[in-house]
């Protein structure tokens, strides 16, 4: 038996960060709005984000912190709905938060506060949320779109793709937005995992195995881009914020240049120690600037672990300092979609209007959030893009 077709002004595929923000705005503007998600709960990535505390925005969110083949695309939305606009909403709901560092804002209590704020805002605005929905085909028809959802036909004047990216498939991440976008004739830029730990080959792992678990403040550089944050040696390779950040710029075959003691002047420090008698080992001096295990690793790598400093010429001290300040490593890969925080690439933003997120060639079709080729740095930038792009589409649908 055919059930009657339901008609909506706006149907949003994906009730994650961007989709919920768009639903709130559309419904507040009086649009009959339906957000659909195949998950059992909305905003699952929000719930697990920031170690359960959700780094919900960054006060420094601006185009410099986003990667895209079309770097200016994000300007309009980020300007029109800013980090402070989102903070104002959080404050209005009385959600306690704190700044951790570098403009990164986290919930004091739980990421669930942000999910609850969004679902409450949706409900109060009159947007409908349907979970566990199986979305099949979607096609353009005169005046809108027809979708197959749970075997039923839905009609929508506007269709918003907000299905996010491919990272963490076990949480329900899919490439659905990309497949639908392609079906509507939009281009998709190549995708790869971003904000992801990098891995070593067996030989490098055998060398660095004793360092697993060591964390150090470092500056990791790839080409002209560098990030100074914590770096963590793992049993697979390297992780920690400095590595996650640089991973978005790293391509297979690239070497990383890592300063394991940024700000220290190790050549001078080693010479000074030698001038003061030189009975200490190089590893002991290095350990004043980095964890002891790492100091020993570097000194052993240079074959200088035991030798007293007095026996070492400037040449050796310079080589040792260089090994710390400009360690060159060549990861062989990344941990992939399984652990990546984000997807780089996505729906080609040259096919979208930066003010409305609407596809230029398909009136009424909008793409927001991570599904579009806009990827932020670590630190709340990706949620801000989700809020800003969702808000921008919400004003236009
Ligand atoms: P999002 O992934 O939030 O939502 C997409 C929705 O679409 C999901 O609800 C999904 O179930 C649904 N969907 C997918 N396929 C579907 C289909 N076929 N049918 C129906 N529904 C479908 N960012 C940040 O700024 N600060 C942080 O602290 C963190 N922390 C963090 C931790 C971890 C572990 C991860 C994996 C990611 C982060 N991020 C982050 C990144 C951030 O979570 C991400 O960029 C945003 O959630 C993107 O918002 P979207 O709404 O675009 O996608």
Automatic annotation (TrEMBL):
Cofactors demanded by this protein: FAD
Xref: InterPro entries: BaiN-like, BaiN-like_dom_sf, FAD/NAD-bd_sf, RsdA/BaiN/AoA(So)-like_dom, RsdA/BaiN/AoA(So)_Rossmann
Pfam families xref list: HI0933_like, HI0933_like_1st
SUPFAM superfamilies associated with the record: FAD/NAD(P)-binding domain, HI0933 insert domain-like
All copies of domain RsdA/BaiN/AoA(So)-like insert, residue ranges: 192-342
Keywords annotated in UniProt: FAD, Flavoprotein
Annotated ranges, domain RsdA/BaiN/AoA(So)-like Rossmann fold-like: 9-395
Protein name, UniProt field: Flavoprotein, HI0933 family
